[in-house]
Amino acid sequence: MKKEKILIREMPKVERPREKLIEKGPENLKDEELLAILLRTGTKEKILIREMPKVERPREKLIEKGPENLKDEELLAILLRTGTKEKSALDLAREILRKFSKRKFQKLKYQDLIKIKGINSAKACEILAAVELTKRILKVGEETLPKIESVKDVVAQFSYLREKQREHLAALYLNARNEVIFKKHLFVGTLDANICHPREIFKHALEKNAASIILVHNHPSGDPTPSKADLEITKRIQEAGKIMGIDILDHIIISKNKVFSFKEKKLI
After folding, report:
1. Around Cβ 247, how many Cβ atoms within 10 Å?
2. Pairing between strand 212-218 and 168-174?
3. How many other CB atoms sit within 10 Å of the CB of residue 113?
4. What is the dihedral of CA 10, 14, 15, 16, to 10 degrees?
5. In the chain, fewer beta carbons within 10 Å around the N or the C end?
6. Domains and CATH numbers, the chain
7. pLDDT in tens, 23-52
8. Which CA distances in Å does 26 have to 31, 76, 93, 99, 192?
């Protein structure tokens, strides 16, 4: 038996995605309801940004270059679809982004958006649905962050350093559950106290709100035994970490076939 298609307009009003979002908030909608708001099947609205060259129009630019190459206002303009008589979709997008920072954007409410001239109920619902869907996708990413439980887990993140002909210093930035939230190459060349400044290392930790750091560097010579400079730099970084409340969990030196762990040798 062929399944009968149910149009949204034929659904009880309290079950329609937009009405549910307005009444209960985006966090209470199913994924498919959020997506249905974004799709807006059957709409006759068009975006006309006539003054812009075709290659610079947000939709065409996205198709040609990919969404990662669009500015924030261009992505938002695609969601808005149309502007007002006075403002294009891009102008309206810029106004919204000036009014709400990215941090505030995550906590937007329907009433915040509907107050902006040019944002009707449909547009407000689409923006909220997009924000909520993004938060859910990012949450999945958090649940699958790689966890560091051993030296082998760290080496797996930087195994390619075995083949490098020069020394590279890198760091893993971890959350309170020892999950990797950021990986950064910091310096290239022989480690030196004048070059390897703690400021550069902890700057990223503060930006990412990391709870701890694991330092990693390679010895192209094939011998992973730490040099006097390695020991001094590690001690200096560890002392800075104590002041800042960010633990240095380990410093691992990788060579062609061997690995040295400061923690395993009780040097940290």
Report:
1. 16
2. antiparallel
3. 20
4. 60
5. N
6. 8-143 (no CATH), 151-261 (3.40.140.10)
7. 888 888 787 777 777 765 444 443 345 556
8. 10, 18, 20, 21, 52
